[in-house]
Write a structure and sequence with these properties.
It is a single chain. The protein is α/β, with parallel strands linked by helices. The protein has 14 helices and seven strands. It has a seven-stranded mixed beta sheet, sandwiched between helices. Helix 2 links the parallel strand 1 and strand 2. The termini are far apart. The chain binds S-adenosylmethionine and zinc ion. Zinc ion binds next to loops. S-adenosylmethionine (SAM) binds next to helix 2 and strand 2.
């Protein structure tokens, strides 16, 4: 299958990270290699590019798509939160820049067999790093085995879904009859749980619940928190980290992580002098997030919720 994914805020992100010839750069969310190709183009023959993705398919696509570029390329199928291990295995002490373009790629959504899509019927999987080498729980396990309270919590917390309680109770009632196995079955249950009046407006009724289960299952917010700390640690002086988020939970984590590194003092408010000794090692390049242009939002609906934040290591 052709890896179709239109990179979001391509120029804004890569320009913001400011890659220079001969530098070392990492894309922690390789996906369809859209951002990666522009980075590789900019860093020239002497540059080093490190491509990371949890999804083996993204790595295979990257290896192919980035072949024409002459920089040194290293690929690693792992969670980006493991950046320190990846760099130390390759004897790279620090990098000059990195990008994280969060969430799932269009390809992952398009492939019914991955189970991410409420638009296409497939097995309830949703593991970003699914496949033969991952025996971890799937969305099917969560939906059929978690308690009603746990399901309600997941859907409310990670989907910001106001009908979480009803959805959880409908799921539990349905699975008593028979195990819920497909994305199509789950979508139907969610539709039944949300009152018709509420269903008429806004995005697809199953969007929030699917997002919630996916975020929970892949521990996306935990990986983001740990990943941000690790990436900010491994940036050399003047190195930049650019992060694109797609919903408020992610954006809040990025905003807070950057703010904390810029202003880490933990002394009680009103203290005459700082005694905690924590000093800033990062400055924010974007005080407010950068949003896609009207034109991009029109051309690529997926970009509509995107926010870009950039920080620089001091
Ligand atoms: C939105 S896509 C990236 C698209 C890419 N920028 C492009 O231009 O094609 C997100 C990718 O990040 C990967 N991903 C998400 N969270 C990850 C994590 N914690 N570690 C590694 N890869 C992750 C997904 O598997 C997916 O391929
Ligand atoms: Zn202090």
């Amino acid at each position: 299958m052709e890896y179709r994914h239109t990179p979001v805020m391509l120029r804004e992100t890569v320009d913001g990270m400011n890659p220079v010839p001969g530098g070392k750069y990492c894309d922690g969310t390789l996906g369809g290699s859209g951002h990666a190709a522009l980075i590789c183009e900019r860093i020239g023959e002497e540059g080093i590019f490190i491509g990371i993705d949890r999804d083996g398919e993204a790595i295979r696509t990257g290896e192919k798509r980035l072949k024409p570029y002459r920089c040194t390329k290293l690929f690693c199928k792992t969670n980006f939160e493991n950046i320190k291990a990846v760099l130390s295995e390759n004897r790279i002490p620090a990098i000059n820049g990195a990008i994280l373009d969060l969430g799932v790629s269009s390809r992952q959504l398009d492939e019914a067999g991955r189970g991410f899509s409420y638009m296409k019927d497939g097995p309830l999987d949703m593991r970003m790093d699914g496949g033969a080498d991952n025996a971890g729980p799937t969305a099917e396990d969560v939906v059929n085995e978690y308690s009603e309270t746990e399901l309600c919590h997941i859907i409310r917390e990670y989907g910001e879904e106001r009908w979480a309680k009803r959805i959880a109770s409908f799921i539990v009632a349905e699975r008593r009859r028979s195990r819920i196995r497909t994305t199509g079955e789950l979508t139907e249950i969610i539709k039944k749980a949300i009152p018709a009046a509420a269903r008429r407006e806004g995005p697809h009724p199953a969007k929030r619940s699917f997002q919630a289960i996916r975020i929970y299952l892949n521990d996306e917010l935990g990986a983001l928190e740990r990943g941000l700390t690790a990436f900010l640690d491994v940036l050399g002086p003047g190195g930049r980290l650019a992060v694109i988020t797609f919903h408020s939970l992610e954006d809040r984590i990025v905003k807070e992580a950057f703010r904390k590194r810029e202003n880490p003092c933990e002394c009680p408010p009103g203290s005459p002098v700082c005694v905690c000794g924590k000093v800033a090692d990062v400055k924010r390049i974007t005080k407010k997030p950068i949003l896609p242009s009207e034109k991009e939002m029109e051309e690529n609906p997926r970009s509509r919720s995107a926010k870009l934040r950039i920080a620089e290591k001091l």
